What we know:
The protein is of the alpha+beta class.
Amino acid sequence: xxxxxxxxxxxxxxxxxxxxxxxxxxxxxxxxxxxxxxxxxxxxxxxxxxxxxxxxxxxxxxxxxxxxxxxxxxxxxxxxxxxxxxxxxxxxxxxxxxxxxxxxxxxxxxxxxxxxxxxxxxxxxxxxxxxxxxxxxxxxxxxxxxxxxxxxxxxxxxxxxxxxxxxxxxxxxxxxxxxxxxxxxxxxxxxxxxxxxxxxxxxxxxxxxxxxxxxxxxxxxxxxxxxxxxxxxxxxxxxxxxxxxxxxxxxxxxxxxxxxxxxxxxxxxxxxxxxxxxxxxxxxxxxxxxxxxxxxxxxxxxxxxxxxxxxxxxxxxxxxxxxxxxxxxxxxxxxxxxxxxxxxxxxxxxxxxxxxxxxxxxxxxxxxxxxxxxxxxxxxxxxxxxxxxxxxxxxxxxxxxxxxxxxxxxxxxxxxxxxxxxxxxxxxxxxxxxxxxxxxxxxxxxxxxxxxxxxxxxxxxxxxxxxxxxxxxxxxxxxxxxxxxxxxxxxxxxxxxxxxxxxxxxxxxxxxxxxxxxxxxxxxxxxxxxxxxxxxxxxxxxxxxxxxxxxxxxxxxxxxxxxxxxxxxxxxxxxxxxxxxxxxxxxxxxxxxxxxxxxxxxxxxxxxxxxxxxxxxxxxxxxxxxxxxxxxxxxxxxxxxxxxxxxxxxxxxxxxxxxxxxxxxxxxxxxxxxxxxxxxxxxxxxxxxxxxxxxxxxxxxxxxxxxxxxxxxxxxxxxxxxxxxxxxxxxxxxxxxxxxxxxxxxxxxxxxxxxxxxxxxxxxxxxxxxxxxxxxxxxxxxxxxxxxxxxxxxxxxxxxxxxxxxxxxxxxxxxxxxxxxxxxxxxxxxxxxxxxxxxxxxxxxxxxxxxxxxxxxxxxxxxxxxxxxxxxxxxxxxxxxxxxxxxxxxxxxxxxxxxxxxxxxxxxxxxxxxxxxxxxxxxxxxxxxxxx
Length: 932
């Protein structure tokens, strides 16, 4: 809903980001004066003194949450222009950004009583004196939307199920209509035609459409299937979705006629600001599937990367021979590393995707024969520019990698170890930083629904992560392998393949996009066609030869054509009559086919469950590599018509109830449970949580404040400094350091390590790091030392192949994650475990699950030391401008800015950058005091 902003001198000035064709600042007020007039038509909210009754809230005021930058993700054209010109913000557009950012320096003094200085009160309801507005959407008598004064979060109460869901859709559109529209077009591969042909837009639509190239009929079929196989709950989900869509569309109609729709529709040419010509398309049920395919691909689809794995295995075998090369490859793969930090740490084993003793059906490519399947054809205009080609390459690399930046973390402590005797949890997803945010907050109260929390915009008919009446839940990305690569043998030509003995035509799916310059995106006109060839075994991703035979490699995902299925699990999580304890919670999340780690806490119990449809593979099939597309090597029970198969039973998924504590930061789930991404070894960012939470549990008396402190402390830690730098310094200090430049660098690094190895400001708002020189040295040194440590032994070819499987480094200043640079989430993937294991081996220390040989200095301590010192001196000599070269936001050499978090703009409102933290975007702090 619009918030009027008077045209007065702004309280604070900010250099506006440029909108191409943006109006001169002097004319902004005159324009806005005219634009504001129609805002009063049909949009006023009536303030009410009535209190939303907080029924059945068992949290006792001890549930909190936060979601930056703010609840309001819609802005009228007038508000966008004011933001661009003066930096002013619509109400509730960024009022959660400051508290979120302030925790970075405020956490050391945190107490239970000050938690809500940095978080919101997440109790049910709104106190009477905190009601900002009360609305009956579309004049309905069966639903009320109350918004609170502090954050503007909608508290939706319905007397009917339909009314409740209608309100959820209406409120979602009030807060995120433009974003929802953007992502329904991303899911269909139509973003450039809708929002403009910028290189980033091209890359975004290519990344997601490649993995889910659905036709409109495919999207509808997924809805029909989800309803058909889930009985009464499936029918209820369809009814809920229909009501939710009706609410969205009611807001579209109201905002269009009242002329308070998001201003981006004008800036992108869909609406005329003067005549109101143009339209905003209503949402339909297939849009929900398109949206779901994007979210699932971003955060809940573990696996893939088998072709890259095959390439690096062949490189290892070429260098060392088959037997030793395989041993080297396996040591770097770390499928089941005994030193890996685990979420389920009570010794229980959950075997999955293990290395078979006698592999069968391997379809390894002939060396040098692999070619990536093109996605984009017939480029014209801006689509043929070098920046477009770069965007396409990045999108392809992301789509084909097993290293999916799922992120998210969780810290959960049993009541046996807390001060109150009740479990405490601090958890949430790291979904990146966007403006507006992908998630939104809401409270839903209606027949069969009682929850508050976060949901993805456009999919918020249920709370997806949050709290119920007496329980809370959250998730982290797990990444176990539900995607396999098959080699289909070609016949007749490049677009026919052998399927069960018959030469079968591939299905060609195309999406043609064209764009022209707009006010929002002045990219020159252009066009292209995205083309995917589909087989029964999934879309084609690569081509190669295997034993001289021409093949196409395809990827088959267990959630492919099942993007809508998880709706049932989320419906259950919102149902207070279904979730009554840890066992029913685990039962609910078993209905979610995304690859997630799920965590639960109530006043008495904690629980954990790993979700996802894990296919049962044929005996001997190695999930790490491509397999022949033949019945003997297919998933057991696989039906290609429905892409269903036999799945491992719930008892074989990592699960637990009332373990002493749980931590998760996308680390290994349990003993013998392999995950698709590389890097689950002796050093993982999960160690940052494990060390801190384990210490708290051993001491006892854990509180909400102490657990938040543990999370916040880990959020500032440089993983390399805390876990690997001691090894590096031990090698270097094995003999006196006589070189003055090297000695000075060592001294700085040691001082930083002694101070805690954190990337933190000297004081809040200083925008200067403490121990800045040491941070700069390590940032420069890490890639140099890794190359010097491993490339001589591995050889350039194998070293390069392994870096394609697992990047060397992921510091805050790197361009990575779903938001690219300035993404916050860091240290998820890197070679820190390899460096740690190898250095300990060279030092003669015990190593469980060592690498196949010693690499640093060829195993010689003195030679290893020389290599480290040489690279250290080189790193110390690099200037800040060389280490942090600058970008559109930051000047070269600005270390703090290079690390800083930016809310990536997906609309017209921009926000300032904040100091780096490595923590969830949406986060809960919960401690329930009673149970039903």
